[in-house]
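Self-study notes.
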Amino acid sequence: MIIAERLLPAVLGLASAGAAAAADPGRGAGLYEARCAACHSLDAHRVGPLHRGVVGRRAGSAPGYDYSPALAAAAFTWDAALLDAWLKDPEALVPGQRMGYSVADAGDRGDLVAFLLSVARR
C-alpha cells in the first residue's frame, strides 16, 4: 500500500505530462490570447500575475505581484496537473483565491497547459 501511495503521484504526473504533450500548444497560444490576455501577460503583471515560467514556480511567488493570502500560502509548485486543476476550478484547488474564471472544456485546458509548458523562462 505504501508503494502504491508513493507511485500514484508519479503516475498521475506522467499521465498529465503525456496529455499535455498530445495537446496543441499553438492552439493554446490562441486560446491564451482570447481567454487569458485580458488579465494576464507572459512577461508583465496585470490584473493577474505574469505567466512566463509558471511551470516549476511555487504558487503565489512571482516577485512583485500582490497575491491573495490563500494563493500566497499555497504550498505547491505549478506543474501540468495542477495547472489543469486550476483552470478547471481555481476555487476548488485554492479556496479563497481571487481568480473568477475557469475553463470547462478539457481539450481547451490541455492546449492552454501545453502552451504554458512551452513558454520557457528568459
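Second protein, same conventions, sequence then structure:
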Amino acid sequence: MIKNSKKHLKDANESYLQHMLVALKISFQLFVASLKSLFHSIIPSLFTKSASTKIKELYFLIEERKKNNY
C-alpha cells in the first residue's frame, strides 16, 4: 500500500501534505454538495442546480490537475 501511495504521489507531482490538502478540499466540497442535494430532495425548490454544478466544477478541476501533473 505504501509503495502504491508513493507512486500515486509521484505521478501527481505532489507531496503527501499537498495531496492531502487538495483531497480534503474536494471532500469538503462534495460533502456540501451532498447536503444541498439532501435538502433539495426534501424541498425541490432549494438548490436546484447546486450539486450538478459542483460536480461539473470538480470534474474540470481534476481533469486540469491531471493535464498539469501527468
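Instructor comment on the second fold: The two ends are 21 Å apart (CA to CA).
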